[in-house]
Amino acid sequence: MNERIAVLMGGFSAEREVSLASGAAVAAALEGAGYAVATIDVRRDLMTLIGGLEAVAPKVVFNALHGRFGEDGRIQGVLDIMKLPYTHSGVLASALAMDKPAAKRVFAAVGIPVAEGRVVPRLEVLRGDVLARPYVLKPLNEGSSVGVRIVRQGDNSNPFGEEDWPFGDQVLAESFIPGREITVAVMGDRALGATEITSDRGFYDYTAKYAAGGSRHLVPAPLPADAYQEALALALKAHQALGCRGVSRADLRYDDTEPGRAGRFVMLEVNTQPGMTPTSLVPELAAHAGLSFGQLVTWMVENAECDA
Fold first, then answer.
1. How far apart are CA 308 and CA 303, in angstroms?
2. Beta-ladder partners of 196
3. 303 among known catalytic residues
4. Annotation marks residue 269 as catalytic
5. Contact 94, 153 (CB under 8 A)
6. Which fold has domain 97-114+178-272?
7. Which of 1, 13, 191, 280 lies at 20 to 30 Å from 209 by C-alpha?
8. What pLDDT, on the 0 to 100 scale, is given for residue 164?
9. Residues 6+ apart with CB under 8 A from 303
10. Given 144, 145, 248, 280, which residue is catalytic?
């Protein structure tokens, strides 16, 4: 094969370490599939990045970056300008998905259920409750549950101090949705399957996602048959509504906590560049659907695009 692929990894977001793991796993899998692979550890130096890409002259760029500046449309715009096809979504879909309030408006417009909430100034949060408890506070544009806080009944302290919020002056406040954590992988025009995630931490936060033993993945998710299909349909609808391409992962809550009442789904977010190690959620679901990790990343390379 010998086609040259550049894998972008690392970056300078809060998810740098996760991206390095994804990039290393992807590079190894692509080399195993016969590609000539060059890895580029992306730093906050645009000229060095452009020079590195020009030196490699790849046929395709595999974007294994996570978080801000890597999956929010900015790197995608650079690759479009350079006319380099890349994996995952383009500029607009990436920017919409990363901006949680904007994504929620898109979801609501096409009939996908979302949690009630509003964007509030950080100072308003410091003064007291901004929603009826329990509720959730989130940065507007971070991934991997970075910065997420849950305000529960009986909590007596502010969720963060005046200096303990390095995510800007605005906060997304949402009603807390009880129930089960469900995630669905989408690949092109089909949903691969759904996973239920459980954690002894009580909340699927950054540590639960990435620390050894922090969470358990139930594949396929043990949902009623009709609910399972609804989860897949909602994920595909969200992928399409945002204009995503390639692979994405939708995170939902399934509230089945009220006896005698049918469960309901609420869309939390769509991750346009989910974790890509062999034990990450999307590769797990791909394996359940009969695709090896090597087959998954090869498909992503073969379906790479740019908007040049």
1. 15
2. 182, 218
3. no
4. yes
5. no
6. D-amino Acid Aminotransferase; Chain A, domain 1 (3.30.470)
7. 191
8. 67
9. 87, 188, 245, 246
10. 144
CATH of 4-87, one of 3.30.420.40, 3.50.50.60, 3.40.50.20, 2.40.128.130: 3.40.50.20
Residue 192 reports pLDDT greater than 50: yes
**Residue closest to 28 by CA, chosen among 18, 17, 37:** 37
pLDDT digits (tens, 9 = 90+) for 214-239: 689 999 999 999 999 999 999 999 99
Q: How many residues does the chain have?
A: 308
- CA 191 – CA 104 distance, rounded (Å): 20
255 is catalytic: no
The yes-or-no answer on residue 210 being catalytic is yes
| Residue 27: burial class (beta carbons within 10 Å; 0-12, 13-18, 19+) | buried
Q: Which of 167-171, 189-193, 242-246 has the lowest mean pLDDT?
A: 167-171
pLDDT, residue 205, reads: 45
Q: How far apart are CA 49 and CA 188, in angstroms?
A: 28
The pLDDT of residue 80: 98
The residue ranges of every structural domain in the chain are 4-87, 97-114+178-272, 117-174
10, 15, 90, 181: the catalytic one is: 15
- What's the rounded mean pLDDT across residues 113-128? 92
- pTM of the entire predicted model: 0.91
Residue type, 295: Q
Whether 226 sits among the annotated catalytic residues: the reply is no
pLDDT value at residue 208: 44
CA–CA distance, 59 with 270 (Å, rounded to integer): 27
Torsion of CA 120, 123, 128, 129, to 10 degrees: 10
Q: Is the pLDDT of residue 286 over 80?
A: yes
